[in-house]
Design brief:
The chain is α+β, with helices and mostly antiparallel strands. Helix content is 24%, strand content 28%. The chain is built from seven helices and 20 strands. Strand 18 (289-291) and strand 19 (298-301) form a beta hairpin. Helix 3 (194-202) crosses helix 4 (210-224). The protein is globular and about 60 Å long. Bound molecules: flavin-adenine dinucleotide and uridine-diphosphate-2(N-acetylglucosaminyl) butyric acid. Residues 127-128, 224, 235-236, 239-240, 259, 271, 273-274, 277, 282, 295-297, 332 line the site of uridine-diphosphate-2(N-acetylglucosaminyl) butyric acid (EPU).
Length: 336
């Protein structure tokens, strides 16, 4: 294992932002983690990096970037349950396609979400009617405080919309080395998300396979979201805000077309993209930063933006949405 000094992170984050890391190391095995622990790397400043698709570097990183790069996918079948275990460094979409190729249903609605398996529980990734927490069974994680491994069950992770215990109580403490997903042979297919049904109809598919669903979802995503290999971005920059029903009803009285999704416990999720668009930000550019023309929730790097500039624009957006709707947007992207 090679610890490198003064490494550019530009190729390692999907915003394509230039920032330097004081130290950089790739972890390919659990032994590598023990070695780093013994070298006291976790007693100094460090950051765990997967695919860099949910981070914004606003300055150089004065510590060690630990990139998780272990590999391997296995499964076993027990009755009608399928347990699939993947190493944290596997690309998420490769895992989705491993499942599709083996005809294991469940993850197909989350096809083409960028990033790694190890990051999938961190913000409980989700898309097109599915959420990680529906299929997460357990994960194995290295405790950087004690140097020991621990297993977290689904319940332990305290998943909610775009959140888990790894973003709150245990933020920055545990390094996930593998995740086990529990799938079910008879999993009901989910095509209820409007855009999926429309696209299936267009393709004249009446009884879709999980492969059809993954292909349709991937197609919709490519139409809507910028491809990080050509336009730097980190997907939704903000979370969709969740507000009490009473507050929503007051807003709806003034803005009857406000996009909303009822949730449990008398709460309503609003579409942040709609709120941002209503404030006139869709497609707007400030210097090297642009709000995506097809999706106002996505901030993009036109090429030479700095992390600071992107952060600044996100601040302007938060202020405008607050002023117009009295709703506070929270960033989904991890700011460094
Ligand atoms: P990184 O960006 O490298 O890290 C994200 C966070 O996870 C950091 O806090 C990091 O420290 C932590 N982390 C990473 N790996 C580990 C590990 N092994 N152990 C402990 N902590 C770790 N997200 C969705 O939920 N749904 C979407 O539909 C979606 N669409 C997107 C579309 C685009 C075009 C882009 C660029 C992003 C999108 N995202 C979406 C966001 C992103 O893909 C997810 O958050 C993804 O899980 C991030 O994975 P990563 O490996 O790139 O994590
Ligand atoms: N909308 C607008 N204007 C916009 C964007 C959206 O009015 O510029 C409205 C549309 O009316 C649409 C609604 O908002 O009906 C929702 O839009 P969309 O279906 O694109 O989904 P989203 O809520 O903006 C969320 C996730 C995405 C995920 C999609 C699909 C969050 C923060 N984002 O976006 O996840 O892919 O749903 O399930 O929850 C990510 O987290 O990075 C991400 C891309």
């Amino acid at each position: 294992m090679d610890i490198q000094n003064n490494i550019s992170l530009q190729e390692l984050n999907t915003f394509g932002i230039y920032a330097a890391a004081k130290q950089f190391v790739e972890v390919k095995s659990e032994n590598d983690l023990f070695a780093l622990y013994q070298n006291h790397i976790f007693q100094e400043k460090f950051f765990i990096l997967g695919g860099g698709s949910n981070v914004l570097f606003t300055k150089d990183f004065e510590g060690t970037i630990v990139k998780i790069a272990n590999k391997g996918i296995q499964h076993f079948i027990e009755g009608s349950n399928i347990f699939v275990t993947a190493a944290a460094g596997e690309v998420w979409n490769d895992l989705v396609w491993y499942c599709i190729d083996h005809n294991f249903p469940g993850l197909e609605n989350m096809a083409l979400i960028p990033g790694t398996v190890g990051a999938s529980p961190i913000q409980n990734i989700g898309a097109y009617g599915a959420e990680l927490m529906m299929f997460f069974y357990s994960c194995r994680a290295f405790d950087t405080y004690t140097g020991e491994f621990q297993t977290f069950s689904n319940k332990d992770c305290a998943f909610t919309y775009r959140d888990s215990i790894f973003k709150s109580k245990y933020k920055g403490r545990f390094i996930i080395v593998s995740v086990t997903y529990k799938l079910h042979v008879h999993q009901q297919k989910n095509t209820s998300y409007g855009a999926i049904e429309k696209e299936l109809e267009k393709r004249k598919i009446t009884n879709p396979t999980i492969k059809d669903i993954a292909e349709v979802v991937s197609h919709i995503r490519v139409e809507k979201l910028p491809d990080p290999s050509t336009v730097g971005n980190a997907g939704s920059f903000f979370k969709n805000p969740v507000i009490p029903t009473a507050q929503f009803e007051a807003l709806q009285a003034v803005y009857p077309t406000i996009v909303n999704y009822p949730m449990e416990n008398n709460q309503i999720k609003l579409a942040a993209g709609w709120l941002i668009e209503q404030c006139g930000w869709k497609g707007k550019e400030i210097g090297e930063v642009a709000v995506w023309k097809n999706q106002a929730l996505v901030l993009t790097n036109k090429g030479k933006a700095s992390g600071q500039e992107i952060f600044q624009v996100s601040d302007f957006i938060i202020q405008d949405v607050q002023a117009k709707f009295q709703v506070t947007l929270e960033r989904e992207v991890n700011i460094l």
